[in-house]
Design a protein that fits this description.
The protein has helices at residues 41-46, 84-90, 109-116, 123-134, 140-152, 157-169, 196-205, 224-229, 238-248, 263-274, 279-292, 313-329, 351-362, 370-386, 395-404, 407-418, 447-456, 491-503, and strands at residues 18-23, 33-37, 53-58, 61-70, 79-82, 97-101, 182-186, 210-214, 250-254, 297-304, 333-340, 348-349, 430-435, 440-445, 466-469, 476-477, 482-488, 508-511. With 513 residues, it is of the alpha/beta class. It folds into 3 domains: 7-101, Barwin-like endoglucanases, CATH 2.40.40; 182-258 and 287-418, Pyrimidine Nucleoside Phosphorylase, Chain A, domain 2, CATH 3.40.1030.10; 430-511, Pyrimidine nucleoside phosphorylase-like, C-terminal domain (Aldehyde Oxidoreductase, domain 3), CATH 3.90.1170. Strand 3 and strand 4 (61-70) form a beta hairpin. Helix 14 packs across helix 15 (395-404). The protein is globular, with a radius of gyration of 25 Å. The N and C termini lie far apart (77 Å).
Length: 513
């Protein structure tokens, strides 16, 4: 009988509940998955069924995974096939033996249920929940339950404080010798809004310290780290980050490598899939990352528009007040700016295309997108004023001068070299324009659907993929004029993206004269 036969083929000497680990080669991102034979000894003796949460152990390393079961010859009776996430977290080699058992009861779920039934949670409850989230004990179902419990009935001020504190304490924290550490954040929802590299270059060139840790895309066509990675390495550890900041006064790196508020990315991934925008969760998400990064002064960009995350001026005002109140409790000085969120910023949507826009602004090229330049100087100016490096109402002038005289461009090149060497953003192999179906004025550009088009083109996994906009709201266009160009790495992706565009004619809406 071969190795994919009956359970009697278990190797002699194997301990109870032990199986041979097999690498499945399945990328499930965050979620740990294990596949076992439905009739194997372990599944039968433990009473495991499909979708059971199981504890996988390799020595002292442990992972809680979701079990799926196979029949036939796909999996041997003495094997457990693991997803890449589970494999890496257990530090396995092919053929290693692991044990599979029931995990201990997840006590923190009682707190989630308590909030579902209308009870407020205190700091110990949030600490327990967030710790279990970071430890990988929450399945996507549990995560969805927690997020829904926090969105259906909004968190009050004390709960937001408790959640923020819990998210900070479950990760690493950076501490800096400088008295003032500046940072900037955008609440999101606006494609192409790649101001961060520009702001870091501007304020660092003017003497401020800005160790910027940024995210990769979760559900968007590009995160700041994705765009920056096309210009310089971003996967730096804490020691390397400190060296760059000590040398140049700033950096733009991927925050995931140093686990600042690690619960944040896990929660955001599920929150976006559910299309939930809980204000309390948003505040805790933003501020926990800034506190953990050691920031003291932060400017927060709140784009407002019908297809942005913040839909109205009233919502922006209320959100701004709540952010400032929570920030003050943690000793963080924050200034919020409600900005135009009616359409994407710049022309490029996708890592390399957004990097191209950043470089053109830094180099003061004649065709550089002026909206990106103006937004960056406004935010950098607000940060300079907040930190006391510019007089009131004088920050934007100072920031603009740093671009015009080349100081920001020089500083950006030095930061890139310090992070491992400057790179040239790649270009796509396939390009096709999306043409206007009528003449008229551009009435609107749907932020969410233009971002979706860029993702279907392959962004952010294909760094050169995305959408290059040629028009803005208010522009006059004629029949057959290119509205944007879709960039991909394969003809199949190009066709896929255009199928979506054909079914969504008003991604770029044109009003007939």
């Amino acid at each position: 009988m071969n190795g994919r036969g009956k359970s009697e083929t278990r190797h002699a000497g194997m301990a109870p509940n032990s199986v041979r680990a097999r690498r499945l080669g399945l990328d499930t991102q965050y979620e740990a998955i294990v596949v076992m034979h439905k009739e194997c000894d372990v599944c039968r003796s433990e009473g495991f069924s499909a979708h059971t949460r199981v504890l996988l152990c390799n020595g002292k390393r442990q992972v809680i995974a979701t079990l799926y079961q196979a029949t036939g010859d796909l999996i041997s009776h003495d094997e457990a096939a693991l997803s890449e996430s589970a494999w890496r977290r257990l530090s396995l080699n092919e053929g290693d033996t692991i044990t599979v058992t029931h995990p201990a009861p997840l006590d923190s779920l009682s707190h989630v249920r308590s909030r579902i039934y209308g009870h407020d949670l205190g700091e110990p409850a949030f600490n327990a929940i967030v710790r279990d989230v970071v430890d990988g004990k929450y399945s996507d179902i549990y995560l969805s339950s927690f997020l829904t419990a926090c969105a259906a009935r909004p968190l009050d001020h004390k709960e937001v404080l408790a959640l923020t504190h819990a998210m900070v304490e479950t990760g690493e924290r950076l501490r800096w010798p400088a008295g003032i550490i500046v940072d900037k954040h955008c609440v999101g929802g606006l494609p192409g809004n790649r101001t961060t590299p520009l702001i870091v270059a501007i304020v660092a060139s003017l003497g401020l310290t800005m160790p910027k840790t940024s995210s990769r895309a979760i559900t968007s066509p590009a995160g700041t780290a994705d765009a920056m990675e096309t210009m310089a390495p971003v996967d730096l550890d804490t020691a390397a980050i400190r060296q760059v900041v000590e040398r140049e006064g700033g950096c733009v790196v991927w925050g995931g490598a140093i686990k600042l508020s690690p619960a944040d990315d896990i929660l955001i991934r599920v929150e976006r899939a559910l299309d939930l925008d809980s204000e309390g969760q948003l505040i805790a998400s933003v501020l926990s990352k800034k506190i953990a990064a050691g920031s003291t002064h932060v400017v927060i960009d709140l784009p407002v528009g019908p297809t942005a995350k913040v839909r109205s001026a009233e919502t922006a005002k209320a959100l701004s007040q709540d952010i400032v109140e929570v920030a003050e409790t943690f000793g963080l000085k924050v200034k919020t700016l409600a900005t135009d969120g009616l359409q994407p910023v710049g022309r490029g949507i996708g890592p390399a295309l957004e990097a191209r826009d950043v470089l053109s602004v830094l180099r003061c090229e004649p065709d550089a997108p002026q909206d990106l330049r103006q937004r960056a100087t406004a935010l950098a100016g607000a940060l300079l004023e907040l930190a006391g490096a510019a007089p009131p109402d004088g920050g934007e002038t100072l920031a603009t001068a740093a671009l015009d005289n080349g100081r920001a461009w020089t500083k950006f090149q030095r930061i890139c070299e310090a992070q491992g060497g400057m790179r040239v953003p790649p270009t796509s192999s396939q390009q096709r324009p999306l043409l206007a179906e009528r003449s008229g004025d551009v009435l609107a550009i749907d932020n969410r659907r233009i971002a979706r088009l860029a993702k279907l083109a392959g962004a952010p996994d294909d760094k050169a993929a995305g959408v290059d906009l040629h028009v803005s709201v208010g522009d006059e266009v004629t029949l057959g004029q290119p509205l944007c160009t879709v960039h991909t790495e394969s003809p199949g992706e190009l066709a896929y993206a255009f199928d979506y565009a054909s079914a969504n004619h008003d991604i770029i809406a044109i009003r007939e004269p």
